[in-house]
Amino acid sequence: MMIQMIPAEIQDYAESFTSEENEILRELRRKTYGERDDKSMLSGFYQGRLLSMFSRMIEPKRILEIGTYMGYSALCLAEGLHDDGKIITLDVDKETNEIAKEFWAMTPHYPRIEAFLGEATHIIPTLNETFDLVFIDADKPNYSNYFDLVFPKLRIGGIILADNVLWSGRVLNAANEDENTKALHAFNQKIQADSRVSNILLAVRDGLMVIRKERD
Ligand SMILES: C[S@@+](CC[C@H](N)C(=O)[O-])C[C@H]1O[C@@H](n2cnc3c(N)ncnc32)[C@H](O)[C@@H]1O
Q: Which of 118, 29, 30 is nearest to 76 (CA)?
């Protein structure tokens, strides 16, 4: 269960001054919150609008998403795609992938979303693309591996976003915590020590690390 890091009334105020999402995204959230025990995995409205805003600012031709789940964040990211852009999204879960595809099919973005099923660490090395934007949002112990695998495929000036890097605040005491917490803290330390990037850890929702590739 994710803790609320920003006071609820401040969060509500911020959301009330944030552009609306479209009806399909709203319905996908309703379905996820109503039917799924693992619903906390969904990015949610506020982070979804932030992902959309990043994507609109970058206007990427190639996006890689690691962790599709119900397809919500992929649709948010797709909103900023360049006219001839596409998003590749990876997941191991066939069931959620089918639901994602049903919802994508209701949008004009569908032809520009390519979903691959399988272990992301196996698929990424096979992708012959140069990415402008990458969203890391899958299994936490692999975050550092995902960074190492995508870094050579990211253009200079490209952006990596990594979700859940505050892990409900547990990273503050990572030495005494579980494998996921230790991995996320190690990832944050690795990024901070990497002279090839500039980065800012946004204390939004569960923590979003924003990383810009400055050099190879
Ligand atoms: C937090 S959810 C993604 C949420 C989604 N990005 C969103 O914001 O709505 C994480 C997803 O990563 C997937 N996943 C976990 N381990 C994976 C792996 N080794 N390779 C690919 N996907 C994985 C899970 O099946 C799950 O659907």
A: 29
pLDDT digits (tens, 9 = 90+) for 23-53: 999 999 999 999 999 999 999 999 999 999 9
8 Å CB contact between 167 and 206: yes
- Residues 150/78, Cβ–Cβ less than 8 Å: no
* 138 burial type by CB count under 10 A (0-12 exposed, 13-18 middle, 19+ buried): buried
Distance 67 CA to ligand 1 centre (A): 3
- Does ligand 1 have an atom closer than 6 angstroms to the CB of 43? yes
State the closest ligand 1 atom to the C-alpha of 74, by its place in the atom list counted from 1. Answer: 6
In the reported structure, the alpha carbon of residue 69 is separated from the centroid of ligand 1 by a whole-number distance in angstroms of 5
pLDDT value at position 1?
A: 64
**Strand 86-91 and strand 113-117: pairing?**
parallel
Q: Is 120 in the pocket of ligand 1 (CB under 6 A)?
A: yes
Cα angle for residues 55, 7, 190 (degrees, 5° grid): 50
pLDDT-based confidence at 3, cuts 50/70/90?
confident
Q: Is residue 45 within 6 Å of ligand 1 at its C-beta?
A: no
| Cβ of residue 46 lying under 6 Å from some atom of ligand 1 | no
**Would you give the DSSP letter of residue 14?**
H
